[in-house]
Write a structure and sequence with these properties.
Length: about 260
């Protein structure tokens, strides 16, 4: 019966482990998606705000390099989040005009330049596994592209948050697994106790039946029959003992009379 208990408990524990592992995996994926979307939205809003001072010069056809205090605008945007790698202003060919990076790159990264050239809307985003690129395109008075603003954000910060969440969920899952294991053992012991006692009674009855069958096969009477046959013997023994005591008492009385004479 102990083996049956341990087998059932092991099955319960394995199922709980699988469910908790699946929960941690799916919750981590969900958090990764939500965090990625939030980061992308935040960078897009920041890129929009950073591009505002450059909208008017682009509309009237002035080169973006003529914007006064452009480095200050970019630095203010970069300081909103210390993890921002760089903020760039670029012209329609992808050449970097202003940048917070030191030294400033000559052109946009290939992935960002390709996303800018293929973008169908003013906002565009792309990632190369090492950084997020969130950009806003600027248009001149005739609607043609006049350049834009690009924000580089490292993926490592996003991955750090995802790993921290996965670790937190993992520790919570370990605690839940231990609690489920202990509670499962207690519940199984309580619920299956009556069943186990019934199994023990059935097993004892089967053993008794088998023993009686083997005795009968060997020519020996069953245990109940032996007890039934022994009953008259016990009765005769008790009667003999009573007669022995009565004779002893009588002999003692006769011996006392003889001494008195």
């Amino acid at each position: 019966m102990k083996q049956l208990f341990w087998r059932i408990w092991t099955a319960v524990v394995l199922v709980a482990l699988a469910v908790l592992a699946l929960f941690v995996f799916l919750a981590t994926l969900q958090f990764q998606k939500i965090n990625s979307d939030l980061t992308a939205d935040r960078l897009a809003i920041l890129a929009d705000r950073t591009a505002e001072p450059f909208q008017t010069p682009a509309k009237i056809g002035l080169p973006l390099s003529t914007v006064r205090n452009a480095p200050a605008f970019l630095e203010r945007a970069r300081q909103t989040d210390e993890r921002i790698r760089a903020v760039h202003v670029f012209d329609d060919s992808g050449r970097v005009v202003y940048s917070t990076a030191q030294p400033a790159p000559a052109t946009l990264p290939p992935q960002a330049l390709s996303a800018y050239q293929q973008a169908e809307t003013a906002r565009w985003q792309v990632s190369n596994g090492r950084a997020f690129y969130s950009g806003v395109s600027l248009a001149d008075g005739s609607g043609r592209s006049a350049g834009g603003v690009l924000i580089e954000y490292p993926v490592s910060g996003h991955l750090t948050q995802v790993r921290a969440m996965a670790a937190e969920l993992g520790f919570a899952a370990i605690g839940g697994f231990i609690a489920i294991s202990l509670i499962g053992a207690i519940v199984l012991r309580t619920v299956l106790g009556r069943v186990f006692r019934s199994f023990h009674a059935i097993e004892a009855g089967i053993s008794h039946f088998e023993q009686g069958s083997w005795r009968s096969a060997a020519g020996a009477p069953d245990r109940d029959e032996l007890l039934a046959d022994a009953a008259p013997l016990h009765r005769d023994l008790h009667e003999a003992e009573a007669k022995y005591r009565a004779v002893g008492t009588r002999l003692s009385a006769l011996a006392g009379q003889a001494d008195a004479d």
